[in-house]
Write a structure and sequence with these properties.
Nucleotidyltransferase, domain 5, 2 domains, 5-stranded mixed β-sheet, 4-stranded antiparallel β-sheet, 5 helices, disordered C terminus
Length: 226
């Protein structure tokens, strides 16, 4: 559920005597009722949170969005939510009969034949090109977040010793959405998502926030994209 008025929502949280904990790596607020976790509020990238005052303020932020699947990737640089540059990458790295990437195949079948070596070579260039593009953004622009969607299998191949893009970068932010087909339009949709504050309610407390929802205006009620 999208929370449009963050100040109003935080005031409601305080009146309910709930507690908040800020998780910086995920830029989200975890909401507690005593010892129970009742929900998470994923904050917009355009907001900063003050854990002492329990308040949010608008902030000018820049970020990269990276979406990766086997053979297809999209990466874009956004200044305060506006896409300034983007690139889509494609590579021949999927075995047609098995329908799996060459990397996954080699992990289960061992050494490759000629066709497999071609796919593996394309895979290496695919990841090298992505790292080079992100490194270019990191070297040329002030970046606050690197939002990404990538499977665990492919993730290690994105990094190189020479590039500026490193797997321990504290700006990394895993997008809490599944991305099936990376592309320019999907980059824009994820960017829109990152500029919203999304409340995710714990399954065992589906009605916990109903009193807050009741005081929201009708146009703010049904924006759930989870």
């Amino acid at each position: 559920m999208v929370i449009n008025n963050i100040e109003k929502f935080l005031d409601w949280v305080l009146t309910k005597q709930l507690s908040l904990s800020y998780i910086a790596s995920k830029h989200k607020l975890r909401i507690h009722d005593k010892e129970e976790i009742i929900g998470d509020l994923w904050l917009s990238f355009n907001l900063s949170f003050d854990p002492i005052a329990n308040k949010v303020t608008k902030a000018e932020k820049n970020w990269i969005v990276l979406l990766v699947r086997a053979g297809t990737a999209a990466v874009g640089y956004f200044e305060e939510g506006i896409n300034m540059e983007h690139k889509v990458f494609r590579a021949y790295m999927v075995r047609k009969k098995q329908g799996k990437s060459q990397i996954k195949y080699l992990k289960t079948k061992g050494k490759s034949r000629a066709g497999s070596r071609v796919r593996l070579g394309a895979s290496e260039k695919f990841f090298e090109d992505i790292n080079n593009k992100i490194s270019q953004y990191l070297n040329n622009y002030p970046i606050d977040y690197i939002a990404y969607s990538c499977s665990k299998t492919l993730w290690p191949f994105l990094f190189s010793a020479e590039g500026s893009f490193k797997k321990d970068d504290p700006r990394l932010y895993k997008v809490p959405q599944h991305v099936q087909e990376p592309g320019y339009e999907k980059l824009l949709k994820i960017n829109d998502f990152l500029q919203c504050s999304n409340l995710v309610i714990e399954e065992k407390y589906p009605d916990y926030f109903s009193s807050y929802i009741d005081i929201e205006s009708p146009e703010q009620e049904d924006n759930d994209d989870w």
